[in-house]
Amino acid sequence: MRRWETVYFSGNSKGEKNMRKNWAALALTGMLCLTTFAGTQTVSAETADSAKQVDIVFTHDTHSHLNTFTTIVDEAEKEVGGFARINTLIQEQKAKNPDTLVIDGGDFSMGTLIQTVFETQAAEIRMLGYMGCDVTTLGNHEFDYRSKGLANMLNSAAESGDDLPAMVVCNVDWESMEAAGLSEGQQLIRDAFDEYGVSDYVVLEKGDTDIAVVGVFGKDALACAPTCELLFKDPIEAVKETVEEIRENEDVDMIVCVSHSGTWEDESKSEDENLAKAVPDLDLILSGHTHTTLEEPIVHGDTYVVSCGEYGKNLGELSMTQKADGRWEMTSYEIVPVTTDIDQDAETQNAIDQFMDTVDTDYLAQFGYTKDQVLAENDVDFSTQKDLENIHEEHNLGDIMSDAYVYAVENAADFDGVPVDVAVVPSGTVRDTYAKGDITVEQVFNSFSLGIGADGVPGYPLISVYLTGKELKTAAEIDASVSDFMTTARLYSSGLNFTYNPNRMILNKVTDVYLDDGNGGRIELEDDKLYRVVADLYSGQMLSAVTDMSYGLLSLVPKYADGTPIEDFEDVIITENGKELKAWDAIARYMESFEDTDGDGIANVPEYYSTDHDRKVVDDSRNIVDLVKNPNKFTGIIVGVIAVLILLVIFIILLIKKIVKKVKSRKMKK
């Protein structure tokens, strides 16, 4: 946590009596000094008192987590989050300062069962409004239900009559879309924007302070929104233009940006840090999208960048004081964990419960479940969702999910008889882990809650494609080489095992790849043979973004069984009795299929998942033989490029030497 020093100014006079001096003159001088000092102190105090101050609380990436939930935090099982507790904190802050600014950084939807009524109830944004949120913006997951879904949500919210947060986003490129002619989906969103009142920015009066809040949608957010039909302007340029407009047309004291762009460890690629440096007139950037928790704000010039993490596990609180030059100084900053020691606001929880009451009948009934139904009892310590992205090795959470895909497909009522060779689960599709104890339908849904199918029913469906053995080897290399630059592309598989050495040359890190025969045996891959691969629809739609990270060097072309390339992944959605087989439902079925080992009538997660099974082996050897053995075609390409660069450098050096020699020779002749 960032620590702030409080500096106290005080004055005292030193001296001692000198009886041999004129005491009257001394007294008069002392009185004059004290009077002058007191006057100075009065002015300073008045100046401090008159400085404008702003209190701000913030959230982002709450992902439909309206209710409290149990997960793993810092390797311990904890009950965290919940809007009823968050609202308690907000109201406590507003009791201290009724003019507190409440802002949200987008991705308020997609993450729990409440998202299943996203279109009809708009529960997430209405609950933000219920808590007094002043402003929010759009995140990439607000587009998960496609243009129609987003439009329906905005219209439902507007028609509810509830108090709603203002929605701001300044870089939607309506001009380009209108010039080309709006598609049906774009027109739906345009009309819904008008109905809701979406704008580039808003100006809010908080006590004696006028605050402009501008919103922006980031580049990586757009890359993570494959169903988004909108076009967007460059985020930085759009914010620059909007800030200029604010300066020209508004008389404001502060400019805040709610950004769904994020921060990254590599500062050069950290979008909101680049925004802070490029648009120095911004006083504060609330940075969403990357689920970052910043224990201390990032500071560039006079601009602060803040984030409090995902799912409402924390609430961010800060205070800022205006300086003499008109800019703002952050005088306090705290990330407040939302834990069980915070009381739940009863009225807020009641409002949430009313939304949740519709979930069983409106959504889960079609799958034969109820939200509180126990699927299995768990005594296994599963990896966390963060582990899947941050620790590059096999994880049991990825194992159980990928195994579930195979089970569900091969045990479907109308299984086509073609076995699944490989099932793949990318880390970016996983939203939460499984704590010990009862695993319910709600918890399974929350662990894999993204998206919507072609049928318009919430939940991404499974798809079936074919890849060659050579492409499966490439998939392993994508995980080994590319996922360090795009951690949401970490791959967890059932049926495909591989070994990689992180110390080897990029694009040549994988040293062994093979299929598991289901009994621990090994099946060698044949380069030209087609193998059946199952994944979820979102993973198929995001495939191009992943391969782009290798500049097309590592590419996969998913195919039909006859080898014809697939153009639309919705054509290969797996169905059962005419209904899409949803990824989360596949996991639920698998959980329910486990053996009841304790005889209580409820399945138990098997001990199999308490250990690793050589699906992703990390060989951390730095032995020179291990580093150069089994080179692939990319090794030759990379070595060739390096050799050319070395030769080019040598040529340049020799050329410079020759030029210098000629210059010296001419000088000597003179």
TrEMBL record:
Residues 57-292 form the Calcineurin-like phosphoesterase domain. Residues 390-539 form the 5'-Nucleotidase C-terminal domain. It holds the Pfam family Metallophos. One of its GO terms (molecular function) is nucleotide binding. Transmembrane segments: none annotated. CDD domains: MPP_UshA_N_like (cd00845). One of its GO terms (biological process) is nucleotide catabolic process. This is 5'-nucleotidase, C-terminal domain protein. It comes from Roseburia inulinivorans DSM 16841.
